[in-house]
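ok so I'm stuck.
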Amino acid sequence: MPENTAIQLETFDNPQPARDYTINIRIPEFTCLCPKTGQPDFATIILEYVPEKLCIELKSLKLYMASFRETGAFHEAVSNQILDTLVAVLSPRFLRITAQFNVRGGIYTTVIVDHSAQKWRPAPLVNLPEGPNR
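replied:
not stuck anymore, here's the structure
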């Protein structure tokens, strides 16, 4: 599978590096090719990450994701390649890729891959009480 290195992913400085916060990006028009048939595979890619020093610039991310349109790739391989590339560029505290592929041959595939920085631990979950507006 090509490394899609022609696309330069751009970043910018995290505006709040002392704080853990989650950035959630939904990419509903991801396309690659089935390596067996050459037919297009369509997916929604959900990117969730807790930045360290850098954040991803969205236009460059869009171009990077579009670079897979002519790439033959198994769902598992392309999901892991995207994760590896983004981890290499961002060095985030946490990053998860959820790749929800459309039906092919009567089967839906969802691939979830994630990365955690070695010393990073998520904050405990806070459960808020139900209120009248919820």
